[in-house]
Amino acid sequence: MKRLMEMFLRRLGSLLATLVVMSFVIFLLVEIMPGDVAQMILGQSATEEAVAALREARGLNDPLLERYGRWISGVVVGDLGDSIYMQGVSINSILWRKVGHSIILAMTAFIIFVPLSIFFGVLAGVKEKKPTDSIISFFGLATMALPEFVSGVILITVFAVQLKWFPIVSVIPIGESIWQNLNIVVLPALSITLVMFGYISRMQRSSMISVMNSDYIRAATLKGMPRRYVIFRHALKNAMLPTITIIGMNMGWLFGGLVVVETLFGFPGMGSLLMTAIKTRDVPLIEACVLLITVIYSVSTMITDIMYSYLNPRIRYQGGQK
Amino acid sequence: MKYFFYQLKKSPLAMVGIAIIVFWLIAAFAGPSMISFTHTEMDSMNQMVAPGEYGHVLGTDSLGRDILSRIVYGSRSILTVALLTSIFSTVVGILLGFSAGYFGGRLDTAFLRGMDILMAIPPLVLSMVILGILGDSSIASLTIIVSIAFVPATARVSRGVLLTEKSQEYVSAARIRGENHLYIMFVEILPNTMGPIIVEATARFAYSIMMVASLGFLGVGLQPPTPDWGMMVIENKPIIAQAPWAVLFPALAIASLVIAISIFSDFVSKVLIHER
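ok -> structure tokens follow
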């Protein structure tokens, strides 16, 4: 436990370091954007003096480091600044609602794809080289290879256009919350599920195969234990380890996927917000969204690593030294 | 190579995969000359024509543009960018990963830290933000930026395979012979690591297609009038209820190509791992 704590602190430290560097990189990246922020706020017809005055007032003429310092110190106390495109609306008032929507979407997808892909991965692994395995494996390969919007488009054609079970676009009517419109989450969540299913079930399958061929499983089988007991009590415990890593590693894809899926369905989440921010060249909003995605992504990677070493006694007792 | 074809004969799935890839290559090279419509021609009398009608084999979109010719033209750009990206990111990955792994020490630590930082942003988000900020993507900018997003992955793979080879005896033999570092890295070690690197590169090719298609879909890929498969999907999504073909065919084009390359890459890895 002490080693785990030590590892946790070390990881936390490197996480913070990464985030500091990353925030600077994000800031620089958006700074190189062609075009003048002040000009954008005032529009093309603004006089040169007005633009110059606004640049001065917003501190755009200050040295780079000073501006970074101002931005990052705001971020640390939770002030993300104001949106430029939606004239002076504070980002905090737009961002968090959308983040909430995205989290609901991601969690729904997560709840569907994790058990589903583990179950089918185990099934394929246990029935290695039989027709069941071939079907599951090919389906996994096919769905994994499809970008989210391709599987999404197929889902829309089937379930929204033909069967009319779900709406084509995921819009929340004004004045209602997402909880009254949960049917808009289903198709986006399913598109994410399809992509994730391939990765995770394939991983689960191959680790299941290698575990099922190990000596201790053979011993358990020879002892006369029921097969179901051997699979779920003995094999699954060890076969889950690589799967957990792969789930964690794919969190990055999940966030990239969110942007795509939300754009496809017009789902009002963080991904489509970032897309709008890029299209409208809304500098502070881009910075806020990218920073937030980075934070969520890095934290989930860290949690995966810690969970992995907690679940794997070989690493737990040796303090992370393989 | 002989072994490759021997294995290929036994694997019908891999044959189908290669056939689809060859089909798209031919379409990209010779396709445009075989179709009676051009990709920008707007047939204003025949908007949203169903597949097969009025000579439009795959129908038309809301502007009356022929879907088939747009898909065929689109295959050129996506194949070019994806091929360049996978080559570029693999080569840069080898250079970075090899030098970090070979020299070790501080260089290696700096390398790992740097890659950690690059990996802190999901690749799609990274390239989409940079491309969106720069605006006006071209084949060159698309290739460079997607490659940058991929380099952490390719460099880590290269570093990994180098580390397993580094302790081999032939490496110390070369060192004692007094060969210089570059010679050892690229003449002695590189040929022995080609297997995993080729596997990684073919997988990277499939990722590149997905990535380029997704970027096009998000509207930060190649700009009109160049037809782009991903962009065709989002452009025509508003008319999906009236003209599903305008969305489905480009989507299927992406699907077939990516699945074919994945099957191929799976097959390559099976063959190369068996060979050892």
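Residues 91-321 of chain A form a domain with the MetI-like fold fold (CATH 1.10.3720.10).
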